Amino acid sequence: MREHLRYYLPTLAVFVGGIVLWEVAVRALQIQRFLLPAPSDIAAALVDNRELLVQAGATTLLEAVGGFAIGLTGGLAVAFSASRFALARGALMPFGIAANAIPIIAFAPIMNAWFGVTSPVSKMMIVAMLVFFPVMINTMRGLTSADAASLELMRSYAATERQILTRVRIPSALPYFFTAVKVGATLSLIGAIVGEYFGGATVALGRIIVESASFLRFAQAWSAIIVAAALGIGFYLIIIGIERIAMPWHASMRGQA
Amino acid sequence: MSDDAAVVAISGLGKTFGADGSGTVALSDIDLTIRPGELISLIGPSGCGKSTLLRIIGDLTAPTSGTVEVNGKPAARARTDRDYGMVFQAPVLFDWRTIESNVGLPLEIIDMPRSRRAGRIADMLALVELSDFARHHPWQLSGGMQQRAAIARALAFEPRLLLMDEPFGALDEMTRERMNTELLRIWEQTGITIVFVTHSIPEAVFLSSRIVVMSARPGRITKVIEVDLSRPRSDATREHDRYFELITEVRESLKSGGPGRPAEEQPEQVR
């Protein structure tokens, strides 16, 4: 416990120090509130709007997690089917890489038009698209990443394709897969919030940020941003927790509790 | 099968890499019979096809011509019957498995019931003296210990033939000598037949009952040397006059082995 404390103390100090500096700077330099509200103002807005923010956070989180689940399932399904067939892999990979390079978020207004501006489904579809491509590409790479010697070893045992998949290919793919899932977790909240910027249900984080800002209620906008940040960090931490349970053997995990 | 029957019978074997037989000739006119309980070393310069020959015996590579029989059946059949265990230069242990689970992998592949697996794994770990490390992960072990785990794994389903492709090539000299002594102990304890690829002359002399000397381009067998050093062999064997004579004999055969010129291409052999 004490070890942990010593490890996290510098980080905590920087955090607290940063907040204090921010507060002091805003007051001392008399920065206009609509440019940058003081932390105390933002905290007050958080408390005042807590019920609204909880509701809005729940809406946005549902969109993000729902879309994440759809994109993840789709990405995995395509990767697993394609990894069995070299031809399909060769045909799909260029599209995957190209799709991964384009700003998918640009489709947000189109998704809103297709699936309904106020419906959470339109946001989920944007998130799903954002998550799908990295998961598909990385999982496909991971499934074909097993080294030649491991595959020869399995061949020397006359192992079946299924045994090779479960005992070599899937464990070898896990690090690739989790890299994509972590990217996807971050992208999912970005997708949901930016999707909401283009219109959506009133009580959603993206809507609160856009509307508060347009009415110059910046402390309120910031309070919604804080909630979004907390959700993003929380989601990311959960993924990291799952990663540690799933592959404690991996080099990046060794020596960690 | 009677005890005198060949474990490995190779005749007229050739291997050409590249399409339509126009590529590099890796092996040509290989004839070799390996009897039960032998420890055969394949030695030669890089490019002499010694690893390729081993891989053909294990049906990991197909020959271009000729036949290979293992335990009296075609190599492909012997592989699907799990007639041999294989040890590569790298240990090829899976990081996501403990040592005991790595050793048990081939037993899972052949669907041995879990209850029977545990006993076999314990026996194999005891054989390579790794019992205390059963629950460790591969990265927590030294290179020599990892290779011992790989040997335990190769022996797990009690094959009659062990194929080893430069298994100690990546180890330092001290560890390599210790592993050689270990391997002889295991060989004597199990009575298994071993085909051992190496480019270390001392290693080949110390271990083998027969040394198959090969030359490069094309890979051929140039000489087969009987190693008449007494057994059991130990560190004292390495100080015998006969040991040095045999080392010289192998070295001379490698030099006269044609265009391969091992002494120049394999500086590690002339240390």
Oligomerization state of this entry? Answer: heterodimer
Runs of chain B in which pLDDT lies below 50 for 5 or more consecutive residues are 260-271
Reported for the largest beta sheet of chain A, the result is: none
Please, how many helices of chain A? Answer: 10
Counting DSSP E segments of at least 2 residues, the number of strands of chain A comes to 0
Alpha-carbon distance between the two ends of chain A: 11 Å
Taking Cα atoms only, what radius of gyration of chain A do you get, to the nearest Å? 22 Å
In CATH terms, the superfamily of the largest domain in chain A is MetI-like
Residue windows where pLDDT falls under 50 for at least 5 positions of chain A? none
What does this structure look like?
The complex is a heterodimer of chains A (257) and B (271). In chain A, 80% of the residues lie in helices and 0% in strands. In chain A, 37% of the residues are buried. The N and C termini of chain A lie close together (11 Å). With 257 residues, chain A is mainly alpha-helical. Chain A contains 10 helices and no strands. Chain A folds into 2 domains: 1-31; 38-246, MetI-like (MetI-like fold, Orthogonal Bundle). The radius of gyration of chain B is 18 Å and the shape is globular. Chain B is an alpha/beta fold. Chains A and B meet through helix 7 and helix 8 of A and strand 6 and helix 3 of B.
List keywords for this structure.
heterodimer, A: 257 residues, mainly alpha, MetI-like fold, 2 domains, 10 helices, 80% helix, flat, B: 271 residues, alpha/beta, six-stranded mixed β-sheet, four-stranded antiparallel β-sheet, 9 helices, 10 strands, 35% helix, 22% strand, globular, disordered C terminus
